[in-house]
Amino acid sequence: MTPTSVFIRRLDHAADLPLPSYQTTGAAGVDLVAALPANTTLVLEPGARDIVPTGLSLSLPSGWEAQVRPRSGLALNHGVTVLNAPGTIDSDYRGEIQVVLINHGSEPFMIHRGSRIAQMVLARYERVTWSEQASLDMTQRGAGAFGSTGLDIAGTP
After folding, report:
1. What does the alpha-carbon distance between residue 65 and residue 26 come to, in Å, rounded to a whole number?
2. pLDDT digits (tens, 9 = 90+) for 103-150
3. Where is the dUTPase-like domain (predicted)?
4. Residues annotated as binding site?
């Protein structure tokens, strides 16, 4: 598979920080790090949310988006997640990527310069045109909503 080339700009306040990178050969996402000022700690108190700069901006190809997603280890171990997950970076956005984090944990969470705070996955998308109809085709599920497809083997919807 030939990788798609994406233009990235490291902003001045992230000059010494690493570019996003895949941590394993099978990883779908790249890590984003906090571009906080040196010797600064952002304390995310339980229940609090804040925006964390990454010091990066992108020029994505047309038909691509970047999705900012939580890091599973932060969610499991600390209750820290991306509030608007997945956050979407559109192909025409050229501003700094910033991550909205929330602490659902019971302890304050410390973020330092260079802390890995989120992951970013790039994905292709297609634009559609809407064709309004008076009715839609019938399916087995129909209009069944949450839990309408039955129970799992444990009896949970």
Report:
1. 20
2. 999 999 999 999 999 999 999 999 999 999 999 898 887 787 777 777
3. 17-150
4. 71-73, 84, 88-90
- Are the C-beta atoms of 78 and 105 separated by less than 8 Å? yes
* Calpha distance 52→149 (Å, rounded): 39
Distance CA 140, CA 143 (A): 9
pTM: 0.86
Scanning the chain, the segments in alpha helix (DSSP H) are 72-78
User: Which residues line the annotated binding site for substrate?
Assistant: 71-73, 84, 88-90
**Paired sense of beta strands 41-44 and 98-103, if any:** unpaired
Residue 69 in contact with residue 89, Cβ under 8 Å? no
Report the Cα–Cα distance between both ends of the chain, in Å, rounded: 39
Does residue 20 have a cis peptide bond before it, meaning omega lies within 30 degrees of 0?
no
